[in-house]
TrEMBL record:
<keyword id="KW-0333">Golgi apparatus</keyword>
<keyword id="KW-0968">Cytoplasmic vesicle</keyword>
<dbReference type="GO" id="GO:0006886">
    <property type="term" value="P:intracellular protein transport"/>
</dbReference>
<keyword id="KW-0472">Membrane</keyword>
<keyword id="KW-0813">Transport</keyword>
<dbReference type="InterPro" id="IPR011989">
    <property type="entry name" value="ARM-like"/>
</dbReference>
<dbReference type="InterPro" id="IPR013041">
    <property type="entry name" value="Clathrin_app_Ig-like_sf"/>
</dbReference>
<dbReference type="Pfam" id="PF02883">
    <property type="entry name" value="Alpha_adaptinC2"/>
</dbReference>
<dbReference type="Pfam" id="PF01602">
    <property type="entry name" value="Adaptin_N"/>
</dbReference>
<dbReference type="InterPro" id="IPR017107">
    <property type="entry name" value="AP1_complex_gsu"/>
</dbReference>
<dbReference type="InterPro" id="IPR050840">
    <property type="entry name" value="Adaptor_Complx_Large_Subunit"/>
</dbReference>
<protein>
    <recommendedName>
        <fullName>AP-1 complex subunit gamma</fullName>
    </recommendedName>
</protein>
<dbReference type="InterPro" id="IPR016024">
    <property type="entry name" value="ARM-type_fold"/>
</dbReference>
<feature type="region of interest" description="Disordered">
    <location>
        <begin position="593"/>
        <end position="617"/>
    </location>
</feature>
<dbReference type="InterPro" id="IPR002553">
    <property type="entry name" value="Clathrin/coatomer_adapt-like_N"/>
</dbReference>
<dbReference type="GO" id="GO:0030121">
    <property type="term" value="C:AP-1 adaptor complex"/>
</dbReference>
<dbReference type="InterPro" id="IPR008152">
    <property type="entry name" value="Clathrin_a/b/g-adaptin_app_Ig"/>
</dbReference>
Length: 786
């Protein structure tokens, strides 16, 4: 016996009554079989009922593609009940990926031309939901006519359909430009809101539309002023005492687009924005939303300085709000404003620091980023103290960012070297395993350059190492410092620290403990072994204990450590007379960089120009070659050499007898290829003389902004006729305010000497936002490939 088909309500009850998923699938499979049979029989009276049940099945996640053609039949039906279900099915079952959606274009066109509002509304809803680019082009004229209909119901739906059309086909913007100006006079909430949205889409996608609608800025200002000063266009759209907040927000977004980089439009908005900012109630979310959009508009346009300070103060009040979402939005916005309005944001520093203690991880992360951006030379002591307090209790996923941020801030704004050293030591003691890779090198360089603090530093580090050997960067720096300045540690004559009596045996025992600890990394053991070796020349006692420890590690499994131990043993056995000279204190190594290289180069050139030119007494080959090198690149104010005296034949003969040295190739000029918000990318080129087909490109990234550029990745691609090798970059963080740049070397092999084209992709985080830029470099100097 064949079961009869269920009604929609009965089907819903039976599906909900299924106790297991298997029972639910069984009910749906049986009903889908009845629906298929009904479609095959072609029952026109009950087709809409069958399709309604199929749509419910589709909403539960089961396949319903076999009902697509039935949707087309119902849309073409003259009955409204069929059209309603047919259009609903088209919106759910059809999209641009299926060719069947093009078959309803004529049906929609016919329905839009009818005079029945309900049918026209269904057609407009379907077109705005699943209309493809082809359908939008074909039906744009019909939608434009409906924009001028008397019925607000149709005008509202036509405006929303026009928004969809502009998003799909931006070329249709000219079709809707004249109509939008007329619709701005509407008093109906839905029509006016849709019109503002449509104008926003047009301005974002068409420069011509942006220029056209800047003329209506006074009209938009008047509409918004009316909303702020009165009850609005309709009382039913007021929320929590705020008059039509949705319309206010949309108008503010449009004003932000129209006033961006336009002085005249921005000037006409200033008074209105000040009125909105001062009169809006922020006790409810609706008022906060309007106020936040006002702040964004003030920041983006060319507003007055006082208005920008008002915007920053509003964000500062948001930080005191009990709603976490509002506080997060305020922190994110202030982070964007730090670079342009640093002094105004600085006034809210205590409130920002309070946000560090938020239990919400996203809030504390944003507060940390903003706190680091607020550090400057005047508040570095207080801010560092607050950040160190946060470092002790912050979650593990924030500890690395906090520690690295403190180290960068101390490096840029340290008032004294001693304070700088103390700050780094505290960070290494609290979160040594989370600091950046260059922290050890930076601290050793800092200590090496502060000769007056050598005794102080070695005592502080020895005390910290005696208490904890688990923080590997701290152990490495302490081992290096003890090895270099161990004699100062034993003297006990430092006035800046508490009296500390250290015996030689205690120092050696501590280093042996580091070597034997299971927590020590291979690199840390290398530091400790080298420190022991250096102490053999700085301690007054017998070196037998040191020799025994070094000989033990001659058979270590770690190859690097074994090699060091074998070399040190050889130094003890065969070259003991040279050991003291070889293990002298390390000289100060200056930090390199493009700026330092330029300063050294300029000083060398100045010294060379100031030195008097020596008068050669003999025509020796070395002196003449030096003279030729000097004359290879004369300066602009250099004089022409005097004519050679023909009587000096002997000198000429000797000069001509010299082998002719090849002239050095002219240097290839550097090229700036990228600059955005303070981040700059420069390319420098070198072609090795031995391999003319090889080009070595050095990519240098510098950051002049107030915020660090983190997670920096530079990727490159070349045409197939080239060969490209990317070497590892020097780091992934570009410090702010002209800190140490990040460099990366690209080696390009050009066997055919073809014109070089380079494609670069940059990925990084700046001011809390992820940025990705892809661009081509086609203007490389000719010298790079010829």
């Amino acid at each position: 016996m064949v079961m009869s088909s269920l009604k929609l309500q009965d089907l819903i009850e039976e599906i909900r009554g299924a106790k297991t998923q298997a029972q639910e699938r069984e009910v749906i499979q049986k009903e889908c079989a009845h629906i298929r049979a009904s479609f095959r029989d072609g029952d026109p009276l009950h087709r809409h009922r069958q399709l309604a049940k199929l749509l419910y099945v589709h909403m539960l996640g089961y396949p319903a593609h076999f009902g697509q053609m039935e949707c087309l039949k119902l849309i073409a039906s003259p009955r409204f009940i069929d059209k309603r279900v047919g259009y609903l099915g088209a919106m759910l079952l059809l999209d641009e990926r299926q060719d069947a959606h093009l078959l309803i274009t004529n049906s929609i066109k016919n329905d839009l031309s009818q005079g029945i509002q309900a049918v026209q509304g269904l057609a407009l809803c379907t077109l705005s939901t699943m209309g493809s680019a082809e359908m939008c082009r074909d039906l744009a004229t019909e939608v434009e006519k409906l924009l001028l209909e008397r019925s607000p119901y149709l005008r509202k739906k036509a405006v929303l359909t026009a928004v969809h059309m502009i998003r799909k086909v931006p070329e249709l913007s000219d079709t809707f430009l004249p109509v939008c100006a007329k619709l701005l006079h509407e008093r109906h909430h839905g029509v006016l809101l849709g019109t503002i949205t449509l104008i926003t889409e047009l301005c974002e996608r068409s420069p011509a539309a942006l220029k056209h609608f800047r003329k209506v800025v006074p009209q938009l200002v008047q509409i918004l002023r009316t909303l702020v000063s009165t009850t609005g266009y309709s009382a039913e759209h007021s929320i929590s005492g705020v008059s039509d907040p949705f319309l206010q927000v949309q108008i503010l977004r449009l004003l932000r687009i129209l006033g961006r980089n336009h002085e005249e439009s921005s000037e006409s908005m200033n008074d209105l924005l000040a009125q909105v900012a001062t009169n809006t109630d922020t006790s409810r979310n609706a008022g906060s939303a309007v106020l936040f959009e006002t702040v964004l508009t003030i920041v983006d346009i060319r507003s007055a300085a006082g208005l920008r300070v008002l915007a920053v103060n509003i964000l500062g009040r948001f930080l005191l709000n009990s709603d976490k979402n509002i506080r997060y939005v305020a922190l994110t916005s202030l982070l964007r404003l730090v670079q342009s309005d640093h002094s105004a944001v600085q006034r809210h520093r205590p409130t920002v620091v309070e946000c560090l203690r938020e239990p919400d991880a996203s809030l504390s992360r944003r507060a940390l980023e903003l706190s680091l951006a607020l550090v400057n030379s005047s508040n570095v002591r207080a801010m560092t103290q607050e950040l160190q307090g946060f470092l002790e209790t912050c979650p593990l996923d924030l500890r690395a960012d906090c520690a690295s941020g403190i180290l960068l801030a101390a490096e840029r704004f340290a008032p004294t070297k001693r304070w700088h050293i103390d700050t780094i030591l505290r960070v290494l003691t609290m979160a040594g395993t989370h600091v950046r890779d260059d922290a050890v090198a930076n601290l050793t360089q800092l200590i090496g350059g502060a000769q007056e603090l050598h005794a102080y530093s070695v005592r502080r580090l020895y005390s910290a190492l005696a208490q904890d050997i688990s923080q590997q960067p701290l152990v490495q720096v302490a081992a290096w410092c003890i090895g270099e300045y161990g004699d100062l540690l034993l003297e006990g004559s430092c006035e800046e620290t508490e009296p500390l009596q250290v015996e030689e045996e205690e120092v050696l025992a501590l280093l042996e403990r580091v070597l034997q600890s299971h927590m020590s990394l291979p690199a840390t053991r290398g530091y400790a072994l080298t420190a022991l070796m250096k102490l053999s020349t700085r301690l007054r006692g017998d070196n037998n204990r040191i020799r025994q420890v070094v000989s033990i590690y001659g058979s270590c499994l770690d190859v690097e450590l074994q090699q060091r131990a074998v070399e040190y043993n050889t130094l003890f056995r065969k070259y003991d007379h040279m050991r003291a000279a070889i293990l002298e204190k390390m000289p100060l190594v200056e930090r390199g960089g493009p700026q330092a290289d330029e300063e050294v180069k300029e000083s060398q050139e100045a010294t060379r120009l100031l030195e008097p030119a020596p008068v050669p007494t003999e025509p020796q080959a070395s002196k003449l070659l030096d003279l030729l090198d000097l004359l290879d690149g004369p300066s602009e104010d250099s004089q022409q050499p005097a004519p050679v005296d023909p009587s000096a034949e002997g000198t000429l003969i000797h000069l001509l007898d010299l082998p002719c040295a090849p002239l050095a190739p002219a240097p290839i000029p550097n090229l700036k290829v990228f600059e955005r918000e303070g981040l700059q990318l420069n390319l420098s080129f070198v072609r090795p003389p031995g391999t003319p087909t090889l080009l070595v490109i050095t990519v240098t990234a510098t950051n002049a902004s107030e915020g660090d550029v983190t997670h920096f990745i530079c990727q490159a691609a070349v045409p197939k006729s080239f060969q490209l090798q990317l070497q590892a970059p020097s780091g992934d963080t570009v410090p702010a305010q002209g800190g140490l740049p990040v460099t990366q070397v690209l080696r390009v092999l050009n066997p055919n000497k073809a014109p070089l084209r380079l494609k670069l992709r940059l990925t990084y985080n700046h001011y809390g936002q992820s940025v990705q830029e892809v661009f081509e470099v086609n203007n490389l100097p000719v010298e790079t490939w010829q």
